[in-house]
């Protein structure tokens, strides 16, 4: 198993390089870079995209020709533009910029944000608690509720309990996450009915003044609604996946034989069926965790005014803050690959009969 883990760890490096190559190449063809953004703001256009929408001269900044590379900067001295290029590193060829960035990233040196004058690593660490809170608690709650519910539905397949629970989770799955989040705000956060939970933020303003118990209670008080909004759509997929997996195993010959020998249903279910049925459920853990950790958190963070990695990545993409964009891609790519390896190790933990090394020889 050690050799397999080592091979997987070594594969992380070329995979991350491939991710960065694709994204770095794409950014070279996307108009409205950081220099164009600064030029647009200095000309009073807000940003380069507003200038395009208004049909103004800022749209010409996408063109390049002769010595006048940024045509929208006619009123700015060339020395100022050259200084901007040196500051952002755009005076160097793309290949040299990419290799420098890759070398720095391999050492976890992500540089400094173009527009926030702060280290990217400090920025990521500042936003990490929000994203970890959403991803960790949402995934944990989804698994703690969906797996027992799916097992119960498989055991009582076709009963009224199975029917009404299926209806309930399908309705929950059909409701978009952002709509459910707005509904929670309206009902429970002082919208029109109750004011049981705070409207925004991860902690209260007086958080530092609270006792340890008070801090824990304040944290869960703030995170309850965002976690519920993030988790609701996960119940249906995971519950039905667990149910169908257990149903498939329950019908197999070894289960019938075990029951014929007089083994208790609980022992058959959790001693024999559980190990085999849970493999397919575990396989979906990395995708679910990363999806909640990044993709779903963008909308939820915006609705609940939470300053996390998802919102930071979106704002960086709009502002063309390349160091933040690439650092976010790098961090989430690395997390995704490590979680994938963790999933394989969990396979072996659940079913020791699985041997990845023998499959590769």
TrEMBL record:
GO terms (BP aspect): microcin transport; transmembrane transport
Family, as annotated: Belongs to the binding-protein-dependent transport system permease family.
Keyword match Cell membrane: yes
Membrane-crossing residue ranges in chain numbering: 9-26, 132-151, 163-189, 219-242, 277-304, 324-350
One Pfam family of this chain: BPD_transp_1
Gene3D superfamilies: MetI-like
Domain ABC transmembrane type-1: 128-343
Domain of life: Bacteria
Keyword set, alphabetical order: Cell inner membrane, Cell membrane, Membrane, Transmembrane, Transmembrane helix, Transport
Membrane topology annotation: Multi-pass membrane protein
InterPro entries (UniProt xref): MetI-like (IPR000515), MetI-like_sf (IPR035906)
Protein's name in the database: Microcin C transport system permease protein
Localization per record: Cell inner membrane; Cell membrane
Keyword Ribonucleoprotein: no
Entry's Gene Ontology cellular component terms: plasma membrane
Principal subcellular localization: membrane
């Amino acid at each position: 198993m050690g050799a397999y883990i080592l091979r997987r760890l070594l594969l992380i490096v070329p995979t991350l390089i491939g991710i960065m190559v694709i994204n770095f190449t794409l950014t070279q063809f996307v108009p409205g870079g950081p220099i164009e953004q600064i030029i647009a703001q200095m000309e009073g256009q807000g940003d380069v995209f507003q200038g395009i929408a208004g049909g103004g001269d800022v749209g010409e900044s996408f063109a390049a020709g002769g010595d006048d590379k940024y045509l929208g900067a006619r009123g700015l001295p060339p020395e100022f533009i050259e200084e901007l290029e040196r500051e952002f590193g755009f005076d160097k060829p793309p290949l040299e910029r990419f290799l420098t960035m890759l070398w720095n990233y391999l050492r976890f040196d992500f540089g400094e944000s173009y527009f926030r004058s702060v280290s990217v690593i400090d920025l990521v660490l500042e936003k990490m608690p929000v994203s970890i809170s959403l991803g960790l608690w949402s995934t944990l709650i989804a698994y703690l509720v969906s797996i027992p519910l799916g097992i119960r539905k498989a055991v009582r397949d076709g009963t009224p309990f199975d029917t009404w629970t299926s209806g309930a989770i399908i309705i929950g799955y059909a409701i978009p996450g952002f709509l459910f989040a707005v509904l929670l705000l309206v009902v429970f956060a002082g919208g029109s009915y109750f004011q049981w939970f705070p409207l925004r933020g991860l902690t209260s303003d007086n958080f530092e003044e609270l006792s340890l118990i008070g801090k824990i209670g304040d944290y869960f008080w703030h995170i309850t609604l965002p976690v519920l909004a993030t988790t609701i759509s996960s119940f249906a997929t995971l519950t039905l996946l667990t149910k169908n997996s257990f149903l498939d195993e329950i019908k197999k010959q070894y289960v019938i034989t075990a029951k014929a020998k007089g083994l208790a249903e609980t022992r058959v279910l959790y001693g024999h069926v559980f190990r085999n049925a849970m493999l397919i459920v575990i396989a979906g853990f990395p995708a679910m965790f990363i999806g909640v950790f990044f993709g779903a958190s963008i909308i939820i963070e915006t609705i609940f005014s939470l300053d996390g990695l998802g919102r930071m990545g979106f704002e960086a993409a709009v502002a063309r803050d390349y160091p933040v964009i690439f650092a976010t891609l790098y961090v989430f790519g690395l997390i995704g690959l490590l979680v994938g390896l963790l999933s394989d190790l969990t396979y072996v933990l659940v079913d020791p009969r699985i041997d990845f090394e023998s499959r590769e020889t």
